[in-house]
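ingest -> validate -> predict -> emit
validate: passed (alphabet ok, no gaps, 241 aa)
predict: started
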Amino acid sequence: MSVSSRYRQAWEGFWREAPGGQGGVLWDAEPVLTAAVHLAHFEPHLTAPELPLVDLGCGNGTQTRFLAGRFPTVVGTDLAPAALDHARTADPAGRARYRLLDAADKSETEALHAELGDANVYMRGVLHQTEPDDRQPLADGLATLAGDRGRVFLVELAEAAGPVLRALAQGPDGPPAKLAPVFRHGIAPGEVADAAVPEYLSRAGLTVLASGELPLLTTEHTSDGTLIELPSRWLVAGRPG
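emit:
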């Protein structure tokens, strides 16, 4: 199973339209506020930090470049070629590698695992933006990439983020400028129950090793100038034993 052509085209259209440079899209916050914070929770659970790290759903590569300074091999993957164009342009020194990947496609994740071996995986805000039928195949793909020794770190919007996003979208002036393209391209965040995320991982053969709550920082502000933060949860998972 792979993602639908509609979903693939939606992301390609979004990234084609997105401005270049860091901070141009809603979730493109500074790494010191995102990946650096996440690593503090992730690294204590890494049993093999020397493994390659896959940044799954890397977008324009802001977090990928940060992670490339902390792991020996980092591969940024995305579904949209336009996203990878942004990432490569922003990384002229080639600090990371970039690769087109449909992580819900079993053959594609198996091919990447055959190339890299077991890998640690970082995934921020992808599952809740995936169509419902693709969520379990995506979790299965994470398990394939991690293999026996890798660990998976996820950050996903919590259920409580739904009302916040709806209120922003329905404001008197419409959605904020950086949220509007998400809705316009048909990739509005879906609502995934908090309890469903560990269930997807469990069915994929992964065990949740740790979890917690963190705000997902955005690059957008409300009309009164307040930075928008969305409730989110993080999980670390891996094979048992």
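DSSP finds nine helices and seven strands in the chain.
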